[in-house]
Amino acid sequence: MGEEDMTLFLEEMASVRPLKNNTSCTIWEQKASTQAQAACRSQLEMSEHLSKLTTQVQEVNPVAPEDVVEFKRDGVQEAVFHRLSRGDYPVKYEVLLHQLKVAQAREVLYNEIQKSREKGERSILVIHGKGANTKPIPALMKSFVVTWLEQIDEVLAFHSAQTHHGGTGALYVMLTKSEQKRIEARETNHKGVKVR
Hints:
CATH class of the domain at 62-183: Alpha Beta
Number of helices: 6
Strand content: 5-15%
Oligomer: single chain
């Protein structure tokens, strides 16, 4: 570029000012935004799921404090359900609900189910207590827990616990695999298959 061209260029550019609001963002900012969006989406999903789980006494089927309760979805094999009822599956996580208010218990139960699945757990122990003297109905928390568990899609089955785990004041709960664990299982099973 000659001296004349440079002079012309500088004259033309003399009134140009840098942009004050640079709209570009760094990869870190994009990642932080994506994480915040995911957290917000997760919170909204949780709120939606929780809103489906009633906290109204008149909407639950009351069970007695000493009733043995059980539930299994279609597709759960009888042998698997029998093992669950005997407490044969290892239980690493216990969810304590018997001292909580109904709304708190609902949130804790739902969150603990999700966390347990993310950690790859398939069986948890939910301790709801017997509640023989609770008002307005006996076994208030137990009745709510039984109703909620039947409505949570991630629950495959549940059964009252053996005496050493709390008897009719607790439940063995079998959970579905998380999506990540399903992918891992598919990959593991696929590696074992030899392609000719």
